[in-house]
Design the sequence.
């Protein structure tokens, strides 16, 4: 659906990540609005373990948003390359991700795609939840159609399988 690029914010002289919507999807009805809602949903969540969104933009045929660049790797990469982790590591990750998701829930947002690939660890071990692309907002503004079964099957909760 999108590609993330590393870029340099010239005004602030810092690295940023830019998520650019696939041009093939830009012509799909409602796709750009869903992409904008994803950015707005994530940007409304100000939490130390949720990747901050800095800006959103659109050019003819291209929609994008700018977010904090996390110099590190995804939890999926950590598990694949380093194997099983210590109980202390697992407990820390669960605590950080749990507090981020609790905060999102308190603010009316359900992530719906929590998986190792959507958890980033920076070089210092700080943990971030990313990718609110299929999040559901309490105000009824989902980023997908009602009743659709979406997400990554291996990580879905039973309610998602039932379209709830």
Sequence:
């Amino acid at each position: 659906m999108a590609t993330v690029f590393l870029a340099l914010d010239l005004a602030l002289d810092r690295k940023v990540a830019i998520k650019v919507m696939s041009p093939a999807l830009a012509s799909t009805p409602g796709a750009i609005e869903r992409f904008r809602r994803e950015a707005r949903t994530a940007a409304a969540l100000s939490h130390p373990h949720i990747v901050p969104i800095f800006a959103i933009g659109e050019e003819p045929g291209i929609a994008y948003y700018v977010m904090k660049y996390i110099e590190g790797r995804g939890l999926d990469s950590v598990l694949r390359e380093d194997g099983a982790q210590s109980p202390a590591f697992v407990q820390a990750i669960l605590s950080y991700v749990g507090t981020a998701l609790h905060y999102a829930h308190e603010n009316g947002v359900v992530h719906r795609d929590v998986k190792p690939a959507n958890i980033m660890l920076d070089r210092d071990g700080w943990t971030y939840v990313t990718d609110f692309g299929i999040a559901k907002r309490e105000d009824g503004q989902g980023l997908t159609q009602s009743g659709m079964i979406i997400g990554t099957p291996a990580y879905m909760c039973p309610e998602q399988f039932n379209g709830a």
Summary: The chain has a mean pLDDT of 86. Residues 47 and 103 are 7 Å apart (CA to CA). The beta strands are 2-9, 14-21, 53-59, 62-68, 72-74, 109-110, 119-122, 127-129, 136-137.
